[in-house]
Amino acid sequence: MLQRYVQTADLDKVYAAVGNVLASEKIAGLKLKAFKYYYIPAGEIGLAGIVIEPTDDLLRLQQKLIDAVAPFTAKNGTTTAFFSAEEGRDIQQALVEYVADFVPKSSGRNFNPHVTIGVATQDYLMGMLAEPFEAFTFSPAGVAVYHLGSFGTAQKKLHAW
User: Are strands 73-74 and 5-6 parallel, antiparallel or unpaired?
Assistant: First the structure.
């Protein structure tokens, strides 16, 4: 939904702001449709996911979250902002820039809602994309804030609703 840099000292304020947004929304009532696989190549491997059709409700929720978190957002970050078992050596520079530019480059009408499903070789991922994808509808069971790691994957749950 949203990727932003925030100071660790502001996390409780971020949780409160997000909690206020979620209290005004019916998250479990959202009807979302997963309709295809995708992957992002990174050398010989790639990051795979399932793409979700953006809906007006999802985009509205995202904008509310962007607005709520804006007072706590830092403009830029470094590899040290990410969860890393390798002192940041496993964090891609493209990811550092992606998070910095998420709003506006990957939000609103540019939003690509997805669920990340893993990392694999490109050969495997190309085969996965060649297989038929049976679309399905689902509703979120909850919301959480995560500390992102390599490839922007959720590595450490920080707070959940």
Answer: antiparallel
